[in-house]
Specification:
CATH class of the largest domain: Alpha Beta
Bound molecules: pyridoxal-5'-phosphate
CATH architecture of the largest domain: 3-Layer(aba) Sandwich
Shape: globular
Number of helices: 15
CATH topology of the largest domain: Aspartate Aminotransferase, domain 2
Strand order of the largest sheet: 4-10-9-8-7-5-6
Distance between the termini: 36 Å
Strand content: 15-25%
CATH superfamily of the largest domain: Type I PLP-dependent aspartate aminotransferase-like (Major domain)
Amino acid sequence: MQQPETGGTDEIQTMVDGDKNNLWHHLKPHACFDTREQMIIVAADGLLVEDIRGRKYLDATAGGVWSVLAGYGRDAIADAVCAQMKKMPYFAGVYGTVPAIRFAGKLLEKMPKMGKVFFSNSGSEANEKAFKMVRQAAHIIPERKGKYKILYRNRDYHGTTMGAMSASGQDLRKKDFGPFMEGFVEFPHCACYRCPYDARYPACGIACAKKVEDIILDQGPDTVGAMIVEPITAGGGILVPVPEYFPILQQICRKYDIWLIMDEVVCGFGRTGKFWGHDHFDVDPDIVTLAKGLTSSYGALSATVVKQHIYDLFLNDPSDPDTRFNYFRDISTYGGCTGALTAAMENLRIIETEGLVENSRVMGAYLREQLSALERYDCVGDVRGKGLFCGVELVQDKAARTPVTEEQMADLLGNILGRGVIAGRTNASLEGLNNTMYFAPALVITKAQIDTIVQAVVQAIEATF
Ligand SMILES: Cc1ncc(COP(=O)(O)O)c(C=O)c1O
């Protein structure tokens, strides 16, 4: 780990004051600044982060939002980015750049059924691009005229911008930010532990998936253009659909000519033990959106990857006054900066050469096994996940599945932190249901580090409940 920049007591105090006075933190109620100092991270290496007070933590969240897949301290990424920045730091995506061409090629190798890559800055933006493609096609393509509605799933999250929020099924993330955009329609989640129909798998007949057809018929199939889903719902509680689920959705989408948008922002690049989250299922999306692990957060980059048949819809005829503007008229200043693309290229090289997807599968199975042992506690209702992406749902009453309170969750996470481990949780996502702990470490994690995490969790559970 490199030496932190800050050292002296005065400088630490300057930073602590600056944090309190100048920063508006993400997802944080202001009152917490009055009672305690925010953690200020100053250095990181592998899975370890160090705060300004010199305390070290094992980060089981890969940077808080599951994105630092390759781990911290990757000089190879930093060096490659530096060299590219010196050579050619930027030109807008209206022209080609060598890093953009190379990395798009790499992505398409990883998704052979896809045809084109559109770069942007964030997961939210990648989803916005997909929505804009759906909306534009509903105007310019005669067979898709009026197919402007986008179906989204309860408990899924697709981003912070207004379109992406409109497509998110999390009531607390949306609370007080409305009105939302017209034409976004919600369908039920697929969480077996809290089945929307109070049924049990497989007797349920996968009613949650079949319900989607009723919703489409109710809306009018001629008005529905796309469906967006996460392969495994992330921020909504780590929800893994049953194997029959996606084939049913796919069949419904095909029946009504509805594009399936797979949001791989969290699950992509090995997080779930396979390269893509949707590789776990028999499903073939039309559009895939990517961000987070795309660069392991060494750069801000996202991508909207589409099948060729979608790209081909936007081939305008410049000589025809009616269709000359039918190309995808979209741009993003920082979308596809050469530095971020170089980080993405180097990150992918690391993931492949170090076998990190396989490590996610193997270590993920071990993590899941260790966490499953927590079911011996009355407060642990459900343990679920795939690869290095696990959730532990906490309850006050196992039989009734009553969620623990926000205060109990905060105490538990605080007790884990006090033992030197940063764990995650459903955070201001679902009213009354922010009761799932998350474990999504960097994909370089070892067995010994998993043991350290689980030991801290065991001690924290015993201290809290
Ligand atoms: C599944 C999913 N999609 C999209 C986003 C939005 O990504 P960003 O925060 O980069 O805009 C997130 C963020 O957590 C996410 O979890």
